[in-house]
Automatic annotation (TrEMBL):
Name of the protein this chain belongs to: Amidohydrolase
NCBIfam families named in the record: amidohydrolases
UniProt keyword terms in alphabetical order: Hydrolase, Manganese, Metal-binding
Entry note: cofactor: The Mn(2+) ion enhances activity.
Gene3D superfamilies: 3.30.70.360, Zn peptidases (3.40.630.10)
Cofactor: Mn(2+)
Domain named Peptidase M20 dimerisation: residues: 194-288
Residues that coordinate or bind Mn(2+) 2: 106, 108, 144, 370
Chain residues that bind Mn(2+) 1: 173
Cited Pfam families: M20_dimer (PF07687), Peptidase_M20 (PF01546)
Length: 404
């Protein structure tokens, strides 16, 4: 049995001042991927105050899984990410980051805050006997950056075994291009596969005055770059979602010396395994141009997050809950973009979905994530809490039938 919709929104709004305090504390003290120790300590303190959770710490580094269980019913998970970004904050707010060069510029401070708020309300429901099943509150480190093994926090969470019994998992992400009081949902692939590539074009180099005596990797690179930039428009079906971008080109140290090699680094984004494989294969074919020009190449591809795949039934549940809690809430249905989200590792293994929660400040929907001036409208915090709380009740009430 779940609580009534009006009660959840009212209870969430009642928490607003506490939510703002928590969010501003977390914003003031951001920590980078795999370094979230004080963040974890703070979350643990808030959770322990409820005196109802079975808490596991030290997961995937500094991750936390807090379990609330009635002993019967399905097991579901609600996840928030914990880490910040290496960005110098330029917001000018009084609670600006006190860690130079580190900033919560992707809303993870808000995600943690809303999950803590949902945990508080669901703990209250547990004490009143209104929980039938098990809820795991997942505070996941290292969403933004992989370690030396190429892994972010989500795959480590899965490897730990702490969340492998989940029958469903949900999450939210703040969205500065939507107004506060709006959400964005999408079924199926919703954020991109991420693959970064490192291509080295090798020649022999030589004296700038005698280019004919050697093989010039910069000259070869000019053909490779044309091939890469023409790849999407001429080799990929325009109905498919995929792109490739070059972020770095390095070659040479002197104006009169032809270098021996040129380094090209970039990123590949796609929504499906088929397009992911195609883009890598096409990049390999383009790199082979160097062989016909007298050079050779090496290509390394670093596989990152898989595409975020949103379960259709759980996404429908998001819409139903939003309509019931906030009857006038605008709901937009479209993919979330070409960014990456390591929650995709979890939805690959467990039926799950994420929704985007509007947080535009002062009605300005031109904002974006990962910027030095990123801020949110804190009116979004209780809305996120209410949606996560009611979605948790709804998943438990359906006893595993909805998302299968």
């Amino acid at each position: 049995m779940r609580t009534e919709e009006w009660d959840i929104t009212k209870r969430s709004e009642f928490l607003k001042s506490d939510l703002i305090d928590i969010r501003r504390h977390l914003h003031r003290f951001p920590e980078l991927s795999f370094e979230e120790k004080k963040t974890s300590d703070f979350i643990l303190e808030v959770l322990e105050a409820e005196q109802v959770f079975d808490i596991q710490t030290g997961i995937a580094g500094h991750g936390i899984v807090a379990t609330l269980s009635s002993g019967s019913g399905p097991t579901i998970g609600v996840r928030a990410d914990m880490d910040a970004l290496p960005i110098v904050e330029q917001t000018g707010v009084e609670y600006t980051s006190e860690h130079p060069g580190v900033m919560h510029a992707c809303g993870h401070d808000a995600h943690m805050t809303m999950l803590l708020g949902a945990a508080k309300l669901l703990a209250e429901d547990y004490k009143e006997g209104r929980i039938s099943g098990t809820i795991k509150f997942i505070f996941q480190p290292a969403e933004e950056k992989a370690d030396e093994y190429g892994l972010t926090g989500a795959p480590y969470m899965l490897r730990s075994g702490a969340i492998n019994d989940l029958e469903a998992a949900i999450a939210l992400h703040v969205c500065p291009w939507r107004n506060t009081g709006e959400i964005q949902i999408n079924k199926g692939p919703s954020m991109a596969n991420i693959d970064n590539f490192f291509l080295t074009i090798n020649g022999t180099g030589g004296h700038g005055g005698y280019p004919y005596q050697g093989t010039d990797p910069i000259w070869m690179t000019s053909f490779v770059l044309q091939g890469i930039y023409g790849l999407i428009s001429r080799r990929v079906n325009p109905l498919d979602v995929g792109t490739i971008s070059i972020g770095e080109v390095h070659g040479g140290l002197s104006s009169n010396v032809i270098p021996e090699s040129v380094q090209i680094n970039g990123t590949i984004r796609s929504y499906t395994p088929e397009v992911r494989s195609q883009l890598i294969d096409e990049l390999q074919s383009i790199a082979k141009i160097t062989e016909s020009l007298g050079g050779y190449y090496t290509l390394d591809v670093e596989h990152g997050e898989p595409a975020l795949h949103n379960n259709a039934d759980i996404t429908d549940m998001f819409r139903e809950v939003a309509n019931e809690l906030y009857p006038h809430m605008p709901i937009y249905e479209e993919p979330f973009g070409m960014g990456g989200e390591d929650f995709g590792h979890i939805t690959n293994d467990i039926p799950g979905a994420m929704f985007f929660l509007g947080c535009a400040l002062n009605g300005d929907t031109t904002g974006s994530l990962h910027t030095s001036d990123f801020q949110i409208n804190e009116d979004a915090l209780p809305i996120g809490v209410a949606l996560l709380t009611e979605c948790s009740h709804r998943l438990l009430a359906n006893n595993g039938k909805l998302w299968r």
